[in-house]
């Protein structure tokens, strides 16, 4: 073998080790979740059999004994969360084995609204969110910025679930505009802001988005047009074209976006892809125009400077 072959083999060994380490870490987390789930189950069972009411000394006594043996991971607060974990998710398979960890769940379990809990679990599993990113999404009221219809019935997502990605796009989208005022903000500046914080922007859009390109050039006859932002959604298996406007919604904006959608479907989309959808991001939605938008392949949303909230 030559030097290149040896380098290739070494890289392969390292990459295989990385993959195997990730697999083992996921398994360890899933085993931990299952253990905590079963601890919660045993606590509930013990309280029912002994007719112990909620809030008695049983969990306190248990926590004292377990922390002496196994550390503060089994203190009173965590045992209460394990109990609630079991009560909230009696079907353990609905939560794991996936990418969510116990540390994620400790931020989600206190949430009282079931749809809201489900939303954040889906967000973690589909976007591989870190705990820090999850907490930021909760702090920024990501769930509250979904449309009312979507918030009414959010189920935990499995690989077999069909998803309506359009419903998970937030309104408004929160951006850090870096102090730019309205007079300084044109479409180019808005696009630059979004690209600079692309990972956060993908989260604002919702679940399953991956970035394809900006100012994507397309040829119409002898002229060129530029699509502001182009994404691909792995859940919907389709392209998503995004058009940026710093003005209030206008009918011509919708027509322009629909034109780009039609172009992508005709010239870029593969036969195995679903039809393209479009997102129009504007300064302010005009419901007098929006109420005549009967196209189910276009979502209109707005943007807001998060630093002003």
Distance between the termini: 61 Å
Q: What is the CATH architecture descriptor of the largest domain?
A: 3-Layer(aba) Sandwich
- Number of structural domains: 3
Strand proportion: 15-25%
* Global structural class: alpha/beta
* Largest sheet entry: 6 strands, mixed
- The CATH topology of the largest domain comes to Trna Endonuclease, Chain: A, domain 1
Structure description:
The chain has 309 residues and is of the alpha/beta class. It is 48% helix and 15% strand. α1 crosses α3 and α8 (187-196) packs across α9. The longest helix has 47 residues, at 3-49.
Q: What brief labels describe this structure?
A:
309 residues; alpha/beta; Trna Endonuclease, Chain: A, domain 1; six-stranded mixed beta sheet; 15% strand; globular
What is the element layout, followed by pairings?
Elements: H1 3-49, H2 58-70, H3 76-88, H4 102-108, H5 114-127, H6 131-139, H7 148-152, E1 173-175, H8 187-196, H9 198-205, E2 209-220, E3 223-233, E4 238-244, H10 251-267, E5 277-282, H11 287-290, E6 298-305
Helix pairs in contact: 1-3, 8-9
């Amino acid at each position: 073998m030559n030097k290149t072959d040896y380098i290739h083999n070494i890289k392969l060994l390292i990459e295989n080790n990385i993959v195997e380490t990730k697999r083992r870490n996921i398994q360890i987390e899933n085993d931990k979740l299952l253990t905590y789930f079963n601890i919660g189950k045993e606590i509930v069972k013990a309280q029912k059999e002994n007719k112990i009411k909620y809030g008695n000394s049983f969990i306190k006594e248990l926590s004292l004994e377990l922390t002496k043996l196994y550390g503060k991971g089994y203190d009173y607060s965590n045992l209460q969360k394990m109990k609630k974990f079991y009560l909230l998710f009696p079907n353990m398979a609905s939560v794991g084995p996936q990418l969510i960890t116990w540390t994620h769940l400790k931020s989600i379990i206190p949430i009282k609204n079931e749809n809201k809990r489900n939303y954040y679990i889906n967000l973690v599993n589909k976007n591989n969110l870190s705990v820090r990113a999850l907490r930021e999404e909760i702090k920024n009221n990501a769930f509250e910025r979904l449309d009312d219809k979507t918030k009414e019935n959010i189920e935990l997502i499995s690989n077999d679930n069909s998803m309506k990605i359009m419903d998970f796009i937030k309104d408004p989208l929160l951006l850090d505009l870096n102090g730019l005022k309205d007079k300084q903000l044109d479409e180019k500046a808005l696009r630059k802001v979004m690209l600079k914080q692309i990972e956060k922007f993908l989260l604002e859009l919702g679940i399953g988005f991956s970035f394809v390109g900006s100012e994507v050039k397309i040829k119409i006859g002898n002229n060129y047009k530029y699509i502001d932002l182009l994404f691909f959604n792995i859940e919907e298996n389709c392209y998503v074209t995004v058009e940026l406007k710093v003005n209030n919604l206008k009918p011509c904006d919708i027509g322009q976006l629909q034109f780009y959608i039609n172009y992508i479907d005709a010239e870029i989309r593969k036969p195995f892809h679903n039809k393209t959808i479009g997102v129009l991001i504007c300064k302010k939605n005009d419901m007098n125009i929006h109420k005549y938008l009967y196209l189910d392949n276009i979502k209109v949303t707005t943007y807001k400077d998060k630093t002003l909230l």
